[in-house]
Amino acid sequence: MRCNTPGCAWTENFFILSVDETAHISLELFPNPASDVFTLKSSTRIQSVEVYNAVSELVFSIPNPIAVGPVKNAIQLCAATWAEGVYEVAAHNDDEHKQYRRMVVVR
Q: Of 2.60.40.1220, 3.40.720.10, 3.40.50.360, 3.40.50.970, which CATH number belongs to 27-105?
């Protein structure tokens, strides 16, 4: 678009502020729902895990979790003492990508 009026200046500036490069990371949470132990399995190493309740309060956090059993990149979350309800699990991988899964604790 141009400005044809005398004394008018038209400037077009285009800036790329960011590029959203989302790596495809597989993240499974099972069994869901469950009453005590959940397994969180990822296609990449899990760097940290945070769990939030329905009102976004942090109820559990673990940096550098240790994989369990023969399954690489899998950890277990013990929810036996958590209240019944819906929780949001945030898993961070080595590249600081974050994946979310919803889990349901039943009694």
A: 2.60.40.1220
Distant-in-sequence, close-in-space partners of 96: CB < 8 Å, separation ≥ 6? 47
pLDDT in tens, 22-72: 556 689 999 999 999 999 999 888 999 999 999 999 999 999 888 776 777
- The residues, ordered by sequence, that sit 6+ positions from 35 with a Cβ below 8 Å of its Cβ are 79, 80, 105, 106, 107
Number of neighbouring beta carbons within 10 Å of residue 42:
22
